[in-house]
Write a structure and sequence with these properties.
single chain, 202 residues, Tetracycline Repressor, domain 2, 2 domains, two-stranded antiparallel sheet, 2% strand, elongated, disordered N terminus, HTH_TetR
């Protein structure tokens, strides 16, 4: 077992395409059962792999799940976009693969919500390995909007950048309203863009 420069043990990868198959199976099991009910046995059965194979690569359930939702094909990273406008960028990211209308990612988040509140290890891994790279893409979108003058100087950009996901997640998991392109456009046009103008007179 290799050790990197930071002293973190690097567990051996699963050969060939089997790792992707296991990750995809894990995402599907999380979406179906939720994190609490997920077991290594359930994933092994879904992936048609031995439990020993899973433990050679992932020592805990949290490691497996976070790796799965971070890298599996069923839960892709949104692509970096630059349409030339804040509105266009937000629509492209939110409505495309890995966005809010992608059924699998939203169902996976639903399966993790309860566990995230009480499992510190899962919460930290989820924040660092799943949320952070996606937030980095969103930050670039808003940084470019600031440079283009689409966002007023008096606007709290950090708060603005999390408004769209906050509203969509509230609708999905509190109100039970399915995320749709129409809902995303309503939030962008009626909340994000007016807020971006700040106190400027349109």
């Amino acid at each position: 077992m290799k050790v990197d420069n930071a002293g973190v043990r690097q567990r051996p990868r699963v050969e060939g395409g089997r790792e992707d198959e296991i990750l995809d199976a894990t995402v599907a099991v999380v979406a179906d059962l939720g994190y609490d009910r997920l077991t290594m046995d359930a994933v092994a059965t879904a992936a048609k792999a031995s439990k020993a194979t899973l433990y050679r690569r992932w020592s805990t359930k949290a490691e497996l799940v976070v790796d799965a939702i971070s890298r599996a094909k069923g839960c892709p990273m949104p692509e970096e976009v630059d349409t030339g406008s804040l509105r266009g960028d937000l629509i492209s990211m939110a409505c495309g693969a890995g966005g809010f209308t992608d059924e699998l990612p939203m169902s996976v988040i639903a399966g993790l919500l309860t566990a995230l509140h009480r499992d510190a290890e899962l919460q930290q891994a989820f924040r660092e390995r799943f949320l952070a790279p996606r937030q980095a893409l969103t930050n670039k979108v808003y940084e470019r909007a600031v440079e283009r003058g689409e966002i007023a100087p008096d606007v709290d950009v950090d708060l603005l950048s999390v408004t769209l996901p906050a509203v969509i997640i509230h609708h999905a998991y509190i109100l039970g309203v399915e995320p749709t392109d129409e809902l995303i456009l309503r939030v962008i046009d009626n909340v994000i863009l007016p807020a971006a103008r700040g106190s400027q007179v349109s």
